[in-house]
Amino acid sequence: MKKTLFTSAAAGAIVASGLASSAMADGHATDLTLCWAAWDPANSLIELSKDFEKQSGHTMNFEFVPWTSFADRMLNELNSGGQLCDLMIGDSQWIGGGAENGHYVKLNEFFDANGISMDDFLPATVTGYAEWPKNTPNYYALPAYADVVGWTYRKDWFERPELQKAFMEKHGRTLDVPASLEELRDIAAFFQGRDIDGTTVYGAAIYTERGSEGITMGVTNALYNYGFEYENPDKPYDLEGFVNSDGAVAGLELYKELYDTGTPPGSSNWYMGENIDAFRSGQVAMQMNFAFIWPGVEADENVGGGNSGYFPNPAGPTGQFAQLGGQGISVVAYSEKQDAALEYIQWFAQPEIQQRWWDLGGAPALRAVVEADDFAGSQPYAQAFLDSMAIVKDFWAEPAYADLLIAMQERMHNYVIAGEGTAKEALDGLVRDWTEVFEDEGKL
Amino acid sequence: MTLSPMETAAAKTPAPLAKRIRGLSDRTIAWIFVAPTIFLLLAVNIFPLIWTIRLSFTNFRVNRPNNDVEWVGLRNYQRILSDPDVWNTMQATAHFLIWTITLQVLIGFALAFLINKKFKGNDMWTTIIVFPMMLSPAVVGNFWTFLYQPQIGLFNYVIAFFTGADPASFSMIGDVHLAPWAIVIADTWMWTPFVMLICLAGLRSIPDSIYEAAECDRASKWRQFWTITIPMALPFLMLAVLFRGIENFKMFDLVVQLTGGGPGNTTTLTSIDLKREAFEKWRTGYSSAYAVILFVTVFGLASIYVKALNKVKER
Amino acid sequence: MSFSVTEPSKGTKWLAGALVIGYACITLVPLLWIIATGFKSPTDSIAYPPVVVFEPTLEGYVNLFTERTRATPDMLEAAGEPQTWYDEIVRERGTVISGPSRYGERFLNSVIIGFGSTFLCMVLGTMAAYAFSRFKVPLKDDLLFFILSTRMMPPIAVAIPIFLMFRNLGLNDTHLGMILLYTAVNLSLSVWLLKGFIDEIPIEYEEAALIDGYTRFQAFYKVVLPQAATGIASTAIFCLIFAWNEYAFAVLLTSGTAQTAPPFIPTIIGTSGKDWPAVAAGATIFLVPVMVFTILLRKHLLRGITFGAVRK
Question: What family classification does the UniProt entry report for this protein (chain B) (predicted)?
Answer without folding.
Answer: Belongs to the binding-protein-dependent transport system permease family.
